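Regression check, zinc ion case 125:
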Amino acid sequence: MPSCPQCGGQHPGLSPGDVLPPDTKVRRAIPAGKEGPPISKSVFDDVKMSVDLVARQPDETMATIGATKYIAFEVQEATQVFAKYLNQVVFRCVSGNPYHCQVEGKKTVGECKKFAAIMTPRLQP
Ligand SMILES: [Zn+2]
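Current build output:
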């Protein structure tokens, strides 16, 4: 199978722009200083919030932003909380990272706070 021209990697069954199924598991690195508890709501307010498929090693996900903690969740947990503006989790591979996805859409402050509260007990490692 030829490498993807966009990321240089392999991602069988997924193409850039694909919306991920609800039960897909993803991971997000938590920036240093924002671990809380609770995790800062600002960690989740980006209209293109980066996450990685869990197939990527946690150390690699964290190294991208120099983080030492991460959380993992299912796509449907994000879409249920970030519902006002109908967020979707979309596969968006980037150079050197064939696991990269984004939780896309505007997020309210209340939604970010709620998501942070749900995710705080899951901080790893
Ligand atoms: Zn790719």
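Comparison notes: The beta strands are 25-30, 48-53, 69-74, 88-91, 100-104. The longest helix spans residues 109-119. No diff flagged against the previous build.
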